[in-house]
């Protein structure tokens, strides 16, 4: 910078003020242009926000239920609070004090219902082991926001768990039932109910558990359907396990149609809509070998 100032004085005295100014501008541009350029600073980009995780609410949370809404006794409320908090240690400590695990609150709701509504399988099983009765029924419909056909009058935990597509709770409670063969609402068995749900939530383990506890495989319910009729419509994957467990394919529904007729109809409908019939192949093979051949080209009639 001192060099520029000295040279400026020399040019000004020799060539005059105008040329001196021009020269000074040139020298400043040259001098500062040769300096190391500093990187331009830009604001740091805002980090991409991660998508928030989807929070899955329990039934009780979705409905906005609180223990005080149902239970008056303080010990029952504390048990419910431990269940809601997932505090197994506190739950077991409270149960050691020998509370009434079958106390019924408003609408006939039980502690077992509460464990189910909070979807706490550990607490659910603990209550069963401590004497909770899964056969107890609701005395009234429980007011609801979302689960409108889940907690209804004269239903028990078996009905609620199947209606909510959570059959694991039904399977867990079966060994503690005084009557696994009991009819569920409408006179249907647990097998009828679980196989009539769409989508059907059952798997082979659920079916095996029900059969193991004596639920009949050939009883007829609504429309004269047997469990196998329902399986044809909603869960073809379960047809063969039912047939191998003793389901009679010759039993006819109210329209005089047996299980093979139901399969005929479903195949014809699938072909009409261009759908794959692969899921029916095991039952087609079983019926063809043990009952009668299935004509996959048979025109469909009315729905069974």
Automatic annotation (TrEMBL):
ANK repeat locations: 107-139
InterPro entries according to UniProt: Ank_Repeat/CDKN_Inhibitor, Ankyrin_rpt, Ankyrin_rpt-contain_sf
This protein's UniProt keywords: ANK repeat, Membrane, Repeat, Transmembrane, Transmembrane helix
Keyword Transmembrane helix: yes
Keyword Transmembrane helix: yes
Gene3D superfamilies, per database record: Ankyrin repeat-containing domain (1.25.40.20)
SMART domains: ANK
Segments crossing the lipid bilayer: 15-34
PANTHER family recorded: ANK_REP_REGION DOMAIN-CONTAINING PROTEIN (PTHR24201), ANKYRIN REPEAT DOMAIN-CONTAINING PROTEIN 42 (PTHR24201:SF2)
Protein's UniProt name: Ankyrin repeats (3 copies)
